[in-house]
Design goal:
This protein has an 8-stranded parallel sheet with strand order 12-11-10-19-16-15-14-13. A 7-stranded mixed sheet has the order 1-9-5-6-4-2-3, with helices on one face. It is of the alpha/beta class. Helices cover 44% and strands 11% of the residues.
Length: 742
Amino acid sequence: MNNYNLPDCQGGKIQKYTLLLLSLLFLLGSCAGPVAETTTALFDEGIYLIPYPQEVTLGGEDFMPGGELSVVLDRSATDADRFTATELAAQLNKQWGISVVITDSPSGQSIVLTHEGVSENVAGLPEKKAQQGYQLKVEADQLIIRAKGDAGLFYGTQTLLQIIKKGPKGLYVPGMEITDWPDIPERASHYDTKHHQDKRAYVESFIRDLARYKINMLVWEWEDKFEYPSHPEIGAPGAFTMEEMQEITRYAKKYHVQLVPLVQGLGHVSFILKWPQHSHLREVAASNWEFCPLKEGSYELLFDLWEDAIEATPGSEYIHIGSDETYELGVCEQCRIKSEEIGKSGLYHLFTGKAGKHLHEKGRKVMCWERPMGWTVGDSPAKGVEPFEKLVLTESYSYETPDFKYAREANAIGFELFSYDPNPGVVPLMVPYFFALREGGETRIGSLEKSYNLLTSSTKSGYFDGMINTSWDDAGLHNQMWMLSFINSVEWTWSGNNPSLEEFTDKFFLNYYGEQSGDMRELYLLMNKAGYYYFESFERMVWHSGDIGKTHLPDLPRGDNLEYDEYWNREYAARVDESHKQVKQMERAREIIRANQDAGVKHSYDLELFTTIANLVTHTSNTYLALSELERAIKQAHNQRFLSHQAAYEALEYAIGIIETNLSEREKVYEELVAVWEKTRLPKGFSTGDNQFFHRQDRARHFAFRRADMTYLIYDEELLGLEDYREKLLEYMEWYKTTYLL
């Protein structure tokens, strides 16, 4: 993973020009329709198909399924074909109320699923693409889906489910012919659960959603969320067992999603090296971050874990060994000497070479976070060491040229390459889809446009065998916040030619949430803004940016004259102004959420999550506003000191009320958030009677791992010390009351 590109907004202040740009972005995002660009034929017909097909011709008679129809299979249909037909029947009934009979002979209105009669422009493609290609033809009395492979037949049905329309005369599929196949045969979503564990039911629903959009690989970075039989101490309480993971793998395969285990190798291994019995394998004794690549025990332990992972994912073609962010490579004395001889990159490839050869012998292709020709570029390139020629390279890189010089070179010498969807940045609560802020407050394009720019060009280049979209768990977002990112990536890697980014963005909301949804683009933009506001609040950014200043509490009153230093509202005036704006924006967010809940949109759980985010950000805003009001209450008490002791005391009582209201709101917002998030997750950092969660941080200091449980989201509010402030103020009030009012 690349270095994070996040803003360093000292004291929470954003420069004026940035605020103006964000306001402009907000206004643009609130527009009802796309800007003046050429739209596709399907979009013009009100068909919001994702991903867009390679070839489509509109025209001919519509297919009207009515209330009953038959799904017709070849007499030689495979188990996979029958599963596809069963899933299609279930979805037609669930979404549209259509009763379906699965048969091998047409009767009445029919959907025909067949491997016969596939045209050469699909069947003649390279095998991995041909197996996923399909043709869909609409006729008045039947709709035919032809495909060479089982995956292609499944993908044809997923297309069908997205193009059914409801008109004045009932359900219909507009007359059309589609010929379709993927430009990139392997389309991967990286699923990072290092800091949380989703429930099995959620994992399976997530797999179904990925398959619906023709994503066919799930690279699951599970860290300690798998119960490794060879070293059971590494698995966290509640970790998936071997049997459970095998079942999930087989479940995914039915939906043509390959589950690829990612078990970190060289770096990112605190989940392993935090354990005292493995600490002797560290590169740096004081750090649990990284294995020493020259210790034989490192390989013995990792081979055990990787072989467990292979057994847990039967039938998968790949394994990912991670091994990025190797900050400590070459630090121990033995490695330092070796790296002087062969370069740090050479030392890295000693490790990946030994690991890769072992795992290749076990029947797996080996992915790692390495860049095309990365071993020749950088401060310490490899000398006399060549990378294992069968590695699959999946890392991002910033040194590439417009004509893909390095990808072309790596491709020419035989490496399998995955394009890396650009890291969107690590921001809490929401992916920065529409804009990103960099250090100093500079506004940059959001992750949607970054992905579009890279993936459309890399897809068309012909050098890449796959694509991987990463969803780092560093900031602790709920996995649902990444769905737009996953689907955006597959749009450009299934076909690099259509549609425009603007059209995709508009159709995503109509496709994913349903045509009855409204203002979802505005809601996502509000969440984008809220994520940055939240991140810039209090000391949240210190884990990444270091010296960012500190948020203080208003001065406590002291002495018999109720003396205090009136500085808080002056010091934090800009933050108070921004907090007032956020309160209004989060109310607008809740208004959009309620309207879509009333409309009965699809994926309504997302709206529950957005509500918790809006409430959390509102609480953050209210905390700044409460501190502002708290200082004013103390000022009022001070002003009343020589007018009325009773009035002064009542002003202090009002101050206590401000604090208690804020603390009560924090508790309520947090409890409601946890309840919603834990509908799909196990309790974060929980322990069982016989297995205690072992929490140890590492040098990455991830935002989501500052605390073992969900309080990482309110940790900074807790660090303010309002509870202690309240007790000190109550002590002072008791003295004041005893001295002047009794």
